[in-house]
Design goal:
Layout: H1 2-14, H2 19-26, H3 30-38, H4 45-55, H5 59-62, H6 66-76, H7 82-98, E1 107-114, E2 122-132, E3 135-145, E4 152-159
Antiparallel strand pairs: 1-2, 2-3, 3-4
Helix pairs in contact: 1-6
């Protein structure tokens, strides 16, 4: 199992710029990480979780048989058709071309809207329109509260 783990970790690292960069981002000692790569030792539960989170895999996946793991990773990393990426970007470029100067609308606003979950209730959220590198963006923050206690139960953020 240690050899499967090290082979799978090596495969994941091969998609990165360098092992040194992976170690920096994970804040792991390079010598210790090399022991993982060479199969000399296994990471602690805490470090295993950090490694899995960084590479976007589960612990059971990284411990799979190497051939099966490689097939799974290859499928996940399959390049997306260029046209699939271009379609939404073309639409955004068209919108940007038609938009006039929105500077007068930048600032903070309260938004009011009917709740779908609580019939008859109106929610208020805070929204901002801002400019960054010549483009205008929108961000909205909603605080969810329990009706009976008034305590905060959640926070939703939207950006676009």
């Amino acid at each position: 199992m240690a050899t499967e783990f090290s082979a799978n970790l090596n495969l994941l690292c091969s998609y990165q710029r360098s092992i040194a960069e992976v170690c920096r981002k994970l804040k792991l000692n390079r010598q210790q990480f090399n022991r993982y790569l060479n199969g000399q030792s296994r990471p602690s539960r805490h470090n295993m979780r950090r490694i899995c989170d960084y590479f976007g895999v589960t612990e059971s996946e990284i411990l799979m048989e190497h051939a099966q793991f490689e097939q799974m990773i290859t499928l996940r990393r399959r390049p997306v058709e260029r046209t699939e990426l271009e379609r939404p970007l073309t639409h955004l470029q068209t919108l940007y071309g038609h938009s006039q100067d929105l500077q007068k609308y930048t600032g903070f606003y309260f938004r009011y809207f009917y709740s779908f979950g609580n019939k008859g209730m109106v929610f208020r959220s805070l929204a901002t329109i801002y400019r960054d590198e010549g483009r205008y963006y929108w961000k909205n923050i909603e605080i969810l509260r329990d009706q009976s206690t008034g305590r905060t139960t959640g926070l939703n953020k939207y950006e676009g």
